[in-house]
Amino acid sequence: MIKMMYYIGMKLIGSLLLSIFVLACQTGPEPVTAPPTPPPAEPQAVAVEEVFEPENVAQDLYDTTMAEVRALIGELNRIIRARNYDVWVGYLANDYFVRINSDEFLEERTEELFRREQIIAANMGRTAQRRVLRNSRDYFDHIVVPSRSNDRVDDIDFLSRTSVRAYTIDGRGNTLILYDLENIDGNWRIVN
């Protein structure tokens, strides 16, 4: 009898498995469909950057910038006449400050200063003393203070949207570059 029950149980399990298999085969695998196609994207407006043409600066921009640069140069003149190195440094762009502290820059300015002093000394019948510029403070004291305390801006040229070159005209009618300036975070800074 146990054998018979075993035999019936096995038949039932077999039938059950066969039914499950048949049902699985009839439903088949789920159909594979492609993902839905997204709707076409709206055409995006491409931002075209306006090309800056320094020679075509609007007159009101030129006038406003000239007034700002003249005010800046007036302030720099006052600072330089007062020999206020610490305030003067605040008007320098970081890259320019690093450059005027470089050995190469200081050596070149030392040579220029010595040649200039040789000419002056020769005209006075004296011997020139060589001064070595060791840092930006020496550059300020021996180059900037004697030459930049009474600057006047006669013209500017735009180099980019945010940078200008300021000029003066000397007593002989020569146009001389005063400074290259850049507006950095809303403040004009000396970049050269």
Describe what this molecule looks like in 3D.
The protein has 192 residues and is α+β, with helices and mostly antiparallel strands. The chain has six helices and four strands; from the N terminus they run ααααααββββ. Helix 2 (59-81) packs across helix 6 (136-148). It starts with a helix and ends with a strand. The mean pLDDT is 85.
SSE inventory with pairings:
Elements (H helix, E strand, L loop, with lengths): L1 H26 L31 H23 L3 H5 L4 H7 L2 H21 L12 H13 L6 E4 L4 E7 L5 E10 L2 E4 L2
Antiparallel strand pairs: 1-2, 2-3, 3-4
Helix pairs in contact: 2-6
Summarize the entry for a quick read.
The chain is α+β, with helices and mostly antiparallel strands and 192 residues long. It is built from six helices and four strands; from the N terminus they run H-H-H-H-H-H-E-E-E-E.
Count of helical stretches: 6
Low-confidence runs (pLDDT<50, min 5 residues)?
A: none
Largest sheet strand order: 1-2-3-4
Globally, the shape reads: elongated
Please state the structural category: alpha+beta
Give the percentage of residues in beta strands.
5-15%
Arithmetic mean of pLDDT? 85
Beta-strand segment tally: 4
Q: Kindly provide the radius of gyration, computed on alpha-carbon positions and rounded to a whole number of angstroms.
A: 40 Å
The CA-CA distance between the termini, in Å, is: 110 Å
In sequence order, what are the helices and strands, one letter per element?
HHHHHHEEEE
